[in-house]
Amino acid sequence: MRFLSDHLLLLLLPLLFSSLASSQKNQNISLGSTITTSGTTTSWLSPSGDFAFGFLPLPINASLFILAIYFAKTNEKTIAWYLKDINSPLLSDSKLYLTSDGQLLLTDLNNKTIWNPFPSSGSSYVAILDTGNLILAAADSTPNWQSFDFPTDTILPTQPLYKNNKLRSHLYDDNYTYGRFELLMQVDGNLVLYPLALLTDSSNNYGAYWSTMTVGSGNHLMFDVSGTLYLELENKTHINVTASNLSTDEFYQRVTLDTDGSLRHYVYPKDAAKNSSWKYEWTVIATVPSDICRSLYDDTGSGACGFNSYCHLDQNLGQSCKCPPSFSFVDTDDMYKGCKPDFVAPSCGDGGGVDQVYDLIEMANTDWPGSDYEYYASFDEDQCRKNCLNDCFCAVAIFRGTDCWKKRLPLSNGRTGNDIGGKALIKVGTTNSSTLDSMRQQIEDKRKGRKVWLVVGLSSLIVSLFILLGSVMVVVMVLSSFSSNYKRIQVDSNITGSTLRCFTYKELEEATNGFRKELGSGAFGTVYEGFLPPNPKTCVAVKKLENMLKEKEKEFMAEVRSIGQTHHKNLVRLFGYCDEGTNRLLVYEFMSNGSLTNFLFGERRPSWNKRVEIVLGIARGLLYLHEECSTSIIHCDIKLQNILLDDEVTARISDFGLAKLLKPNQTRTNTGIRGTKGYVAPEWFRNVAITTKVDVYSFGVMLLEIICCRKNLELELNNEDETVLVYWAYDCYKGGRVDILIANDEEAAVDFEDFLRLLMVAIWCIQEDPSQRPTMRRVNQMLDCTIVVNPPPDPFFNKVINS
């Protein structure tokens, strides 16, 4: 019934306008009417006087104005709509008038038109309604233009927000230039909050920090007369965004996208005498999201506050941005420009921080997630402190439990809160700030000195080079005469400088006893057990690569170099390689506890805590491959068999970096069951570019296997609905029967909240649309509880059946 009444209201708006025009005095503003920044008429009122439309002086400068619709009876004239289509505030002597041919014109002091919302003749009057809607109407009361269709940062009761329309915050409370956030009713039906870049007035948005997850099902946003802001779906059902049990007859209400990115529902009593518990002020009754500091996180951008600052949330005062100790705002009038150090920041360049001594200042429950460049899993606090102080790159260390993260400037996504735990160790210069200028001068003098040295030394260097060149030529000629007498294996020069060892095929044949004991096989080849001298012999796993494309053989060394440069506790370490004739072999450290498949589906189910630990390890390893190693690596074959376990049962990812050497069909399989099989992301079957999101999808499937302790495909089950794990798991989640997934797992049932959180992370990862999947960085943050895991949408909404 609510839906019907709302739509009847929208359909009958022209009739309502006509009725109000005849029954309410002075509603219509007739042709030829004028308002100015000064003089007898500076605004036009709605019939009840609740709203006004006109010029308001800006708080920062009373000689500058904004053209706005505002609440006229509140203590402070609160703006509900403002003209945002101009680049600067209005000056005195600006004028707004309704011409004789029905055009609404805003002109400057030179009578130049700077705004004309409906540049056609034929409008008969202007009206500011008691809903707060400004209309430019035709003779039959049909709106030619209305402010409700062009919202700014606020939505009012009876106002809809249709697809491809949005709210956008302004920069500060007293600055109405374009702000950093928008609420967008997307054409795909999803209602989304985005942070924006501030370079232009267009929507250069970063990743969403809140949404209704209604892709394909959302229709429009509506603020109804009962005070509820809801998203109406295509099937006519509603999803409440904010709700009020207060009557719009007794309270002014508005929902505003505030300057800090929070969407807040405000109420203001029309008669506080009738409501003794209320004051004549705006009161927040709902906030979305509830914690902007925690929710506003993205791999790009500075987060809720500027770079090097951190976000603090006060439930009464809202969000504020602050600088860490010994830092100050770059611009005291613009906190979003971030903070700068009040000392010579640590630098690894020559002269960077001359005579500077550093200390660490503690900040409890503070973190800047996303700025890590190194991580240590088993450090005490003293080790964490010393490591940061001795590292010229380190600007902040985060210590929590036995974990130590090091971060470099600029810091991003900073926040403080009791839920964070641990402490931040801020690296600050102990030199008095009064000496900074002289220190910087010393740095500059050193740089100038280097230039002088270059000029003086260049002549003697050239002479030396000629002498050296002659000597080298002689040596080369001597060596070349002997080169034909020696047969050697060619080794890539970039490899020999690393820790990798180049083995001959004979060495590896002897080490594996003629490749006798097979440890396993897969798409990349067969793995054999081997022992390398000297005593005590080192046990290794030797992989003979097969199915390699002929044209890819020349890329083998490049891939080996890429693998050899990786160093992470959750990756299997590469000891060496063989690149001799047609033989391509890799020598890895031996993983004593085998693959995760055997561990997970052995005689006894592994403990819940161990499974969670394994999940975290795999996620960290994938994040390293995707973003933190020198060359980004897409694994393309993430599955239980490629996760190996070392002596401590720590998860290690194997076979990374080899996908480009395989035959094209080695990583692609299909089946009749909903178009995919196992771990393969749907985009493999579409003519689209493959990204790191294929690994995210595979990780999601594997995450479900680990937490549910069952394989992703079980063809022999009696219940056909349970055959494919990803579909069964989502059906249980959607139907509110998550308990079915852990019916025989008492440990997981006890830790139900964690199980549910990991389940939602997995569903996010298996979204068929790659753009809907999180990055591995965001996956890690969800797993570490750094960010809230929002309810995931249906991952199979756009089902694709592949033949």
Which key features would you list for this structure?
single chain; 803 residues; alpha+beta; Agglutinin, subunit A; six-stranded mixed sheet; five-stranded antiparallel sheet; 27% strand; disordered N terminus; protein serine/threonine kinase activity; Kinase-like_dom_sf; glycoprotein; receptor
In CATH, the architecture of the largest domain is Orthogonal Bundle
Major beta-sheet overview: 6 strands, mixed
Rg on CA atoms, Å: 33 Å
Count the strands?
44
Q: State the domain count.
A: 6
Low-confidence stretches: 1-26, 350-355, 432-437, 446-463, 474-498, 663-676, 798-803
The main sheet orders its strands as: 37-41-42-40-39-38
Strand content: 25-35%
- Which secondary-structure class do the elements indicate? alpha+beta
Transmembrane segments: 51-72, 452-479
Keywords: ATP-binding, Disulfide bond, EGF-like domain, Glycoprotein, Kinase, Lectin, Membrane, Nucleotide-binding, Receptor, Serine/threonine-protein kinase, Signal, Transferase, Transmembrane, Transmembrane helix
Membrane topology: Single-pass type I membrane protein
Subcellular location: Membrane
Describe this structure in words.
The protein has 803 residues and is of the alpha+beta class. It folds into six domains: 12-150, Orthogonal Prism (Agglutinin, subunit A); 152-290, Agglutinin, subunit A, CATH 2.90.10; 310-431, no CATH class; 434-486, no CATH class; 494-590, Phosphorylase Kinase, domain 1; 597-803, Transferase(Phosphotransferase), domain 1, CATH 1.10.510.10. The protein is built from 15 helices and 44 strands. A six-stranded mixed β-sheet has the order 37-41-42-40-39-38, with helices on both faces. Strand 17 (175-185) and strand 18 form a beta hairpin. Helix 10 packs antiparallel against helix 15 and helix 11 (693-708) runs antiparallel to helix 14 (752-765). The radius of gyration is 33 Å and the shape is elongated. The protein starts with a helix and ends in a 20-residue tail after the last helix. GO terms for molecular function: ATP binding; carbohydrate binding; protein serine/threonine kinase activity. Residues 26-149 form the Bulb-type lectin domain.
